[in-house]
Amino acid sequence: MSISFSGLASGLDTSGWVDAMVSIKQQKVTAYNTELSAIKNKKSTLTATRTVFNNFRTAIEKFTDAKFGGTFDVFTKNTAKSSNEAVFTAKANEKAARQNYDITVEQLATYTKAVSKNSVSAVADDDTKLSQLGITEGSLTAYVNGAKTTIEIGKDDTFGDLKARLAEAGVKTEVNEDGLLSFSSFDGTKDISIGATTDGSNLVSLVGLEKQEDGTYLSTNSLFKASVASKLTDPNSGFNEQITAGTFKIGDATFTIDENTTLSGLISSINNNKDAQAYAYWDDATGKLSITSKKEGASYINIEAGTSNFTDVMEFTETERDADGNIISSKMFTDAQELGKNAIFTVNGTKMTSTSNTVTEDISRIEGVTLTLNKVSSEEDGVSKLTVEQDTTDLIEAVKSFVSTYNDVIAKIDEVTANGADLQRETNLTSFKNTIRTYANGSNTSNGGAFKLLADIGISTGKADGNNISSDNTNTLVLDEAKLKEALAKDPESVRSLLAGENGVLSMMEDSVEQTLSASTGFFDVKEKTLNSDIQKMETKIKKQTESVTKYRAQLEKKFNVMEQMIAKMQQNYSSFL
């Protein structure tokens, strides 16, 4: 690498001369960079324009995709309206016939419920822990002839502990065969009162303690040993009979009980198993298990005994087993199940039944319509009306989207092809604009319906008037929504044909926009390839010219360095001569 000592010997500004001469060659690099920036701007503009075209195509496809049918067809969407949604609601698909129906509801479908015939839990005894009964620790107040005694209940206390402490205060405590808790004085002559606002235990509220006419207290809720926290196979689980490990069946689901299974866990397993088709619930107040069908209608819940005796203990089944525990015979107690009811309703006076309050077309014979029965029709309700008609919501929104994106395309083309704009003189764009304007204003003579022009259904171009005579005013489309709704009500098939028929306005526009956006051969892809090529060429030119400038600077600096060295040597020789 050469080292430049500008003007040290000659006193000349040789670095300035180098910079000046290099800057002349650098002007070409600058010009190339300016040209490259212009090409990149064109590409950016092209990309933005393509996005507007893509949005336009998407808006058009909402109509032209109707040829695929189903959910793609905005013309065939229906809506079902109930004149009294308190009685029933309805949904309609594209297959529904657009007409009116008379609906009445005579009976709603209900769920089958199986309940243990008797309490399957043993009642509390002296050894039962109060916490097992749901009674919390804290204070309990007893008054005997007005004398106050405060009893503390500990977390590990038993019912026997409670009885003993209350007995010391003169209160007799008993649990009868139904599990009801009672308080009285020992000799029946003293006045007792149980509970105070300062109590910390929940005993009084939990059991629903009420004072009787004779001055004693009796609970409204029973105290049963078994609870949701009980381990089912534990000898101390609290059930009337020891539950064995094994299996049983509800619905189509098989459940397994082992030494760790709690009543809460089993109930959760039943409720979360879709094949069980039922919900289970343990009632602490009655000591009974209930199972409710997830399906409405007059059908029994399938409950089958298995290797466990659980369903026998819950009094849903009765099973005879051999010495090894194998089932000899088993039967389900149908009288333990309160059978659900089927829904009864009428359609145009014809009585029908359904196992569910959600009535599908195969039951109601109303094609494409699903009814949801909500309540029995009263005299005041009378006959409710079901009206099935075209759902124009999505269709009108689709028209709004088309109008908006059409206007965006026209405005974008005008913007990017204007004098001095990035895509000026791109005839493909201006030709496309003229084509879709022609379609928008042209007549569809092949449409055999009532409408031939977009203007006939409320889609028209802006008109020049006395205040605005600019031809640009006719570039945009405007929508008269009321006129569109009127056209849809009058002749929906003609609207469909005009927009998306074989020679429909939007079908022809779609062909044009598809050609413009076509991969490889469309305007945007071809133009982008050209710009990419131009960018690559220009970047190559810039690279070569930059290398040339760098080489030129090095050559100049080398020559001036040699000159300075020669001058310095001459000056040294002259100085030596003197």
Notes on the structure:
By secondary structure, the chain is of the alpha+beta class. Helices cover 36% and strands 22% of the residues. It has helices at residues 14-64, 159-168, 203-207, 263-271, 310-313, 361-364, 393-416, 427-441, 481-490, 492-500, 505-517, 523-577; strands at residues 78-82, 88-92, 100-107, 111-115, 138-144, 147-153, 171-175, 180-185, 192-194, 209-211, 217-222, 246-250, 253-257, 278-283, 288-296, 303-304, 317-321, 327-332, 337-338, 343-347, 350-354, 358-359, 369-373, 384-390, 459-461, 477-479. The strands form 8 sheets. A 5-stranded antiparallel sheet has the order 1-24-3-20-21, with no helix packed on it. A 4-stranded antiparallel sheet has the order 14-15-4-19. The protein is flat, with a radius of gyration of 46 Å. The two termini are 35 Å apart.
Keywords, separated by commas or semicolons:
578 residues, alpha+beta, 5-stranded antiparallel sheet, 4-stranded antiparallel sheet, 26 strands, flat, disordered N terminus
Structural class designation? alpha+beta
Helical percentage: 25-40%
Nearest-angstrom radius of gyration?
46 Å
The first-to-last residue Cα distance is 35 Å
Poorly predicted residue ranges: 1-5, 464-472
Arithmetic mean pLDDT: 90
How are the strands of the biggest sheet laid out side by side? 1-24-3-20-21
DSSP E strands, number: 26
Q: How does the overall form come out from the CA principal axes?
A: flat
- Largest sheet report: 5 strands, antiparallel
Number of DSSP helical runs: 12
Residue fraction in strands: 15-25%
